[in-house]
């Protein structure tokens, strides 16, 4: 998911890593320093439009390397979340570094995530702008529940539970959608989806140039 236009909140911020509170954390996840920039797939590529495979092997060097590269690539693209199929790997994994409306920062990765089915009484929709690194450029308003709980495992197969409210809830839902083969524009009206794709065509070259510049800067 792409960076929102603005963050809210003057309240005292907290930091959560893998769903657990920590006292402090660097500006960028340490994984990013070990990673390399990968190409981000774009709407229309097959890998984005089919369900991703469950991960059955954990703790492998290949999985660790992929997570490192995904964090690095997410920061290069000014994202707050990135799914594996957005770097052309069709497995159920996403990484995130997302600030919610209360100023709390959430950082981590999750494999094989499943979102809790919220009771109807707890489903409160929040309509806000949403963008996607695989739809480079445009943002569109989209209503999603303002609370989400994702359950899965970490790279070593240990259970992980991540809870989000507001913008971070949107991030968890957006990235899980990716793993199920859907993009946020698939949830828009036909008119809004067409408009988003039209705007993407006019904006994508500038977005790609900005990413390339940032990748070169981080590499240097």
Description:
It is a single chain. Strands 1, 2, 3, 4, 5, 8 and 9 form a 7-stranded mixed beta sheet that branches. Strands 6-7 form a two-stranded antiparallel ribbon. The chain has helices at 30-34, 61-76, 167-179, 190-219; strands at residues 15-17, 20-22, 81-83, 93-99, 105-115, 125-132, 135-145, 147-153, 159-165. It has one domain: Peptide Deformylase, CATH 3.90.45. The radius of gyration is 16 Å and the shape is globular. The chain has 220 residues and is an alpha+beta fold. The model is unreliable at 6-10 (pLDDT under 50). The longest helix has 30 residues, at 190-219.
CATH architecture: Alpha-Beta Complex
Specify the overall morphology: globular
H/E series: EEHHEEEEEEEHH
CATH level 1 name: Alpha Beta
CATH fold-level name: Peptide Deformylase
CATH superfamily: Peptide deformylase
Strand content: 25-35%
Query: Number of domains in the coordinates?
Result: 1
Number of strands: 9
Mean pLDDT: 95
């Amino acid at each position: 998911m792409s960076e929102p236009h603005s963050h809210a909140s003057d309240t005292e911020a907290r930091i959560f890593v893998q769903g657990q509170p920590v006292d402090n954390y660097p500006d960028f996840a340490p994984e990013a320093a070990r990673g390399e920039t990968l190409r981000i797939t774009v709407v229309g590529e097959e890998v984005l439009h089919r369900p991703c495979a469950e991960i059955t092997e954990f703790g492998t060097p290949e999985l660790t390397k992929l997570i490192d590269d995904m964090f690095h690539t997410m920061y290069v693209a000014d994202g707050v979340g990135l799914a594996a199929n957005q770097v052309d790997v069709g497995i159920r994994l996403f990484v995130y570094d997302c600030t919610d409306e209360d100023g709390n920062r959430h950082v981590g990765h999750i494999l094989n995530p499943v979102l809790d089915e919220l009771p109807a009484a707890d489903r409160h929709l929040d309509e806000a702008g949403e963008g996607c690194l695989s739809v480079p450029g445009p943002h569109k308003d989209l209503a999603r529940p303002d609370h989400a709980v994702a359950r899965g495992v970490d790279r070593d197969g240990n259970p992980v539970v991540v809870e989000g409210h507001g913008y971070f809830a949107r991030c968890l839902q957006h990235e899980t959608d990716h793993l199920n083969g859907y993009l946020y524009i698939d949830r828009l009206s036909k008119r809004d989806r067409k408009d988003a794709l039209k705007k993407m065509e006019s904006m994508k070259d500038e977005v790609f140039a900005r990413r390339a510049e940032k990748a070169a800067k981080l590499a240097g």
